[in-house]
Specification:
By secondary structure, the protein is mostly helical. Helices cover 74% and strands 2% of the residues. It has helices at 6-15, 23-39, 46-73, 80-95, 102-125, 131-150, 160-166, 176-194, 196-206, 208-213, 218-244, 254-265, 277-296, 301-321, 323-326; strands spanning 169-171, 174-175. Strands 1-2 form a two-stranded antiparallel ribbon. Helix 3 (46-73) packs across helix 13 (277-296), helix 5 packs antiparallel against helix 11 and helix 12 (254-265) packs parallel to helix 14.
């Protein structure tokens, strides 16, 4: 790749995630807040908004990995929910109620997520297993591993200090979990937008053949995006269990669909090459607002899941058809 022309092309691929792609998500946030306030006075109160943002923060961390996979490969990772559950249960098991064990829990959680992502990436890249099939099967493997290690028991023995730190308000009622998510989002936004590695992911997602001809290591990048996805989903599980205060099998299952929906709502192109973490954050807030509004309407869980699925389908159609997303 020539120094004179290469970087500008890569930068253009990254900048393709422009502000116009955020418009639908921002508009949805505004409309949902207004509708929620009409439906239930006090919906837009600082206490309720802070609760929504706290929940959206965990989803935003999961979205980091999902976005990298979608942008870099045009595929999706269906094992993220299983990784979230694994990180929550196995990580808390290694803490064993002792704050001093937190570094070990973080290390084990990350290593397990990396291993899961590596297996996904190798299966897809070298054995040519379709991404949907590979990650779906892997989610079953991860769930089985989690159940075998923890014997399916819920995690209730978390250090009180850990729960306090994760859920501790730092500004008003806004908890530290928001700050934790913001740090991860900023770091990965810089990685994707300012480094050669990050920009290469956008180029690969736009045209992997051309990217390979330019000298990019496509096999390595293709595996590494799944490694990032597995690691961030597992770490999000460890954060989630600290915020919720307990863990159980399947607690991360909904994050698979939600993470896909969030990055798409935020303007990511499902065929790869376009998307940003800021868009994923916007999408996360939209989905948490939507869930809260549907709950306020008295919808049972099944009806809420049905509604979210229909909305995801509509967003996927819009992703392919509307100029906000196509550009």
């Amino acid at each position: 790749m020539r120094e004179g022309s290469g970087p500008s092309g890569i930068q253009k691929a990254y900048m393709n995630s422009n502000l116009r792609s955020y418009v639908p998500g921002l508009l949805a946030i505004l409309l949902l807040v207004i509708f929620g306030q009409i439906l239930r006075p006090g919906f837009a109160s600082p206490a309720n908004i802070s609760s929504i943002l706290n929940q959206a923060s965990v989803l935003a961390v999961v979205c980091i990995g999902q976005l990298v996979v979608i942008v870099g490969t045009g595929g999706i990772d269906l094992s993220t929910g299983a990784c979230v559950s694994m990180g929550a249960l196995v990580g808390s098991m290694f803490m064993d109620g002792k704050m001093s064990q937190l570094p070990l829990a973080i290390l084990v959680t990350l290593l397990l997520g990396v291993a899961a992502g590596c297996i996904n990436g190798i299966g897809i890249q070298f054995f040519k297993i379709p991404a949907l099939a590979m990650t779906l099967i892997m989610s079953t493997v991860i769930d089985g591993f989690t159940k075998a290690v923890t014997k399916g028991k819920p995690s209730l023995n978390l250090p009180k200090l850990y729960k306090a730190v994760i859920g501790q308000p730092i500004v008003g009622r806004f908890c530290a979990i928001i700050l934790i998510a913001a740090v991860f989002v900023v770091l990965y936004e810089l990685l994707l937008g300012k480094t050669r590695f990050g920009k290469s992911i956008y180029v690969m997602g736009s045209n992997s053949v051309a990217a390979g001809m330019c000298g990019l290591n496509i096999p390595f990048l293709s595996v590494f995006v799944y490694v990032i996805s597995g690691a961030m989903a597992s770490l999000a599980g460890l954060i989630l269990v600290g915020y919720v205060g307990s863990g159980q099998m399947g607690m991360g299952d909904t994050y698979t669909m939600l993470s896909i929906a969030a990055v798409v709502i935020g303007g990511a192109k499902v065929t790869g090459g376009k998307g940003s973490l800021l868009g994923g954050v916007i999408g996360s807030v939209v989905l948490m607002l939507l869930s809260t509004v549907l709950t306020s309407m008295g919808m049972p869980e099944g009806a809420r899941q049905f509604s979210q699925g229909i909305i995801l389908l509509a967003v996927l159609i819009a992703n392919c058809r509307l100029p906000f997303y196509r550009q």
